[in-house]
Specification:
The chain has about 200 residues and is α/β, with parallel strands linked by helices. About 40% of the residues lie in helices and about 25% in strands.
């Protein structure tokens, strides 16, 4: 996912550089089918350079098919990543310093999903109730029990869900919340830090 440069994007890059030196926990929620091979190769490169040696990295998804593929890919490319089948946080223990998520956020009634995407992704990975906002809302509320104070939450969103997601995070107690745009100029990621 490529975002337009902004002060917040630069801040996050700097924080990731700091994470290389720290013990930290990362959770990728809704890792998808398949977990991105290029992303895993980058993770492996960091591990091979001796970075993130104390990191605990978890990838989870609600889809058994996604978990099966992610497990194979992680075992082959990045065996330090633990793969867990979980409906949002149901099977997740403990707290994390960084949670990143690309949840299902397309409205069920939408006809904007390309045929090739529908062909390769199960409905559970794409669609959500309440105009695509139901899973986002559940994710934000559930994250309060799984993010360390001062930890970050990043959620990929639909182009028209920025204000809703930002308000949900602010109401839940996140601070420094911002909506970041993709290279096409559309709202694409909401970023916030849990107060504490």
């Amino acid at each position: 996912l490529r975002l337009k440069q902004s002060a917040r994007v630069e801040e996050l890059k700097q924080r990731l550089e700091e994470f290389k030196k720290d013990v930290f926990r990362l959770h990728e929620l809704f890792t998808g089918i398949p977990i991105n091979t290029e992303r895993l190769r980058k993770a492996k490169a960091h591990f091979d350079r001796g970075e993130f040696q104390e990191a605990d990295v978890v990838a989870s998804d609600v889809s058994p098919d996604a978990i099966a593929v992610a497990t194979i890919n992680c075992e082959r490319l990045a065996p330090r990543i633990r793969v867990i089948e979980s409906d949002i946080f149901d099977a997740i223990d403990g707290r994390f310093d960084l949670i990143v998520s690309n949840p299902p956020y397309v409205a069920r009634e939408s006809d904007e999903v390309a045929d090739d995407v529908r062909k390769h992704e199960p409905d559970v990975a794409l669609f959500a109730d309440d105009s695509g906002r139901a899973v986002i809302e559940k994710l934000v509320k559930g994250s309060l029990d799984h993010i360390n104070p001062g930890g970050w939450l990043l959620i990929e969103i639909g182009y028209d869900q920025g204000p809703f997601t930002k308000n949900s995070m602010v109401d839940a107690g996140f601070i420094d919340v911002s909506v970041e745009k993709d290279l096409s100029g559309h709202d694409r990621v909401v970023v916030g830090r849990l107060d504490g």
